[in-house]
Write a structure and sequence with these properties.
The chain is mainly α. Helix content is 69%, strand content 5%. It has 2 domains: 1-118, no CATH class; 121-266, no CATH class. It has helices at 3-21, 23-35, 45-55, 63-83, 89-104, 109-117, 123-147, 175-191, 196-224, 230-253; strands at 152-155, 158-161, 164-167.
Length: 266
Amino acid sequence: MTNDARTNWRERGAWVALFLVFTPVLIDLARHVATNSWAVYALAFPPLALVVVHATPRSGSHVVPALFAVVLGMGIEAIALASGTLRLGRIGFVVCVAAVLLLEGRFRMRTAVLLGLCVPLPHWILERTAAGFLYPIADALAAMDRASGTPALALGASVERVSGVMLLEAVDAGLTAGVLGFGLAWFAFTRRHASFAETLGLSFMMAVLGVGVHLVATLLTFHVGSGAELDSLRWIRDAVAYGGVAVVVAGLFRLPMLWTRPAKPT
């Protein structure tokens, strides 16, 4: 068996071991995404990260940093399992994925960003950032209702209608669509070998655009529904918003053409 063949078998073994060790965390992640429409956006990033990793030329293996990352990632998972907070283990999984990429010589900081986006935003981040968005959204919904002849009153993050109360939650603020827009643009400019400053700046612009698309989708779907239908409305809203963000970014940056790696400029 040649050295290359042995290396390939070792790398495959490392990936298999990684997924086996983190099976409880991955099952919890799959259950989370399947039962929460807002978390579906994260499914876009594993294949994008895989494309970037596959296109990354190998450099020297970084054994010491990889071993440190493995110890750190396994430690995080052990804490997650012991404390019953499996979602904490997602961080450990991403760290261990980075460790395997370090061993393969394929780890890059731009790839690390896509790996981090594979994990849905923690709910505490959504809660802390949503307050400034929910009140204006409630006001806008109430105004749309009144303009269409339906009595409505916005009280904080809720809208009181004759048919009942519609209570907005942190996931209605649109941050997840902003993260999706950021990540798609990050992938696009990474494939184009754009400078870090250009990639970061335009990715943030797409994040703002993503929040705007989500806002429009929220207003349209919540306006025609009722508070008793919120769960169903969120699935519809998120499908429209995430699909809209993907279409907009694909149109602006010709995303499908990026699957073929362009030559680096000379």
